[in-house]
Amino acid sequence: MSGKLGVAGRVHELCLPIARELGLRVWDVQYQKEGAEWVLRIYIDKEGGVGIDDCVSMSRAIDPVLDEADPVPQEYVLEVSSPGLNRKLTRPEHFEAYMGEPVRARLIRPLEDGAKELEGLLIGYEDGRLELQMDEETGVTIEKKELAWVCALDDIDIIEE
Known about the structure:
The protein is an alpha+beta fold and about 160 residues long. It folds into two domains: about 80 residues, RimP-like superfamily, N-terminal (GMP Synthetase, Chain A, domain 3, 2-Layer Sandwich), CATH 3.30.300.70; about 60 residues, SH3 type barrels. The chain is built from three helices and eight strands. It has a five-stranded antiparallel β-sheet. A three-stranded mixed β-sheet has the order 1-2-3. α1 crosses α2. The radius of gyration is 18 Å and the shape is globular.
């Protein structure tokens, strides 16, 4: 494993074969300080969605691997969860998977018109540039470094009882 990956990158590499074996995909890995604690968050996914049993299985399978490889320099809390319905898109493969789908983008700084959040169809992602189609006539291209986050907007059918 490369030493240039950082904690999240090294953990991501360690998770890949375990997730595959469990029939899961690693959506993302985050390592960040929250209050006084460091949190290592592993987001997993699979066709049809992730349940609590999947999270428990991944947590139990990755825990001894993390103990042995020791990629985290300090004590941390391990969390394994689903990326959720409105999942954040962070990696090139995420943008590719959601091409043509509705997304919401939050900007670090507002546009000239004051807009700080945009919703539209993801119609392009190349070289760190995100292209959104806002409506039939309006599109916008934004540098990824100008974004606080981008998330998928999955349609949810609400069944009235």
